[in-house]
Amino acid sequence: MTDGGIQTSRNAPATLHDVAREAGVSLATASRSLNGSTRKVNEEYRQRVLEAAARLDYSPNLSAQAVARGTTTTVALLVADIADPYFSSIAAGVVAEADTERLIVTMAATERDPDRELELVRTLRGQRPRVMILAGSRPTTDPTDGALGEELAAYERAGGRVVLISRNEYDFRTVLLDNRVGAAALARELVGLGYRRFAVVTAREGLRTAADRLAGFRDGLAEAGIDLADDDVIRADFTRDGGYDGTTTLIERGLHGVEAIFAANDVMAVGALSAVRDAGLTPGVDLAVAGFDDVPTVRDVTPPLTTVRVPLEEIGRRALRLALGDEDLAAEGAVATEVVLRESTPRRA
Q: How far apart are CA 136 and CA 202, in angstroms?
């Protein structure tokens, strides 16, 4: 059949040449309008190309574009746990920034498994994303460190851009988050509210983010001459259920004067609040609870949770801007955190 002077077929998909002819522009202009090129295209021509592509039901051959350019319009985001609001908030920032750049975000979960993370990076290299963002905290001891660094370096040599979030564990662009400083500030604030005896519910040994937050909390307490006993550090999964189980263990063994619990992330803290309540105690009255991250839900739990605010969506946006060449961000240092005091840690008499 004939449509607008162009011979088409139900079985033959439209080509880029068809779109260019339909729009009355050059092949190069049609290509730049559709493939996210950084070269400017006259807005009138771009709209004509988009309308022609829609009429012809044209779909770009992304694989061919990747081969031609050595990259795609895709941003690959690796997180530890898609269900964790910490990572979903970072992902929201990456997606929002990608939308302004006409890029598409794909996301995969490493499940905090170094071997799975390495496998995902190897697979993604073959798909040639323009950017690869690694947001998951890494283990303190990781047998894949050397192999992962080599994979990421090879990806960059092929034209890709790597950005890490939280710590600069390799020689790549990094959005730094100083967990240790934030946790120390929280400890100082809690001491200022009158608390003197603490317990920490944190991840099992080997997770860098949790280790940094525990070390920072110890730092803040030490400034006030307060020692955190090893027996008062309870380790569990870095999840809501882990926070519940760890707090239950603490209560069942006896609080021995513990006045406040610091949970190493907010989802653990939410679990801790439930465990306190299920033990017949009133959180914020019988036992104070504080977290870290300020994910949106902790403002609505009962009582609202004291925490360390991390601008998670801004971190996601910043990671993508850094990958796309905003080198000024690299000189800004670590992302600032802020202690937010709420009803879960009232001032002691």
A: 16
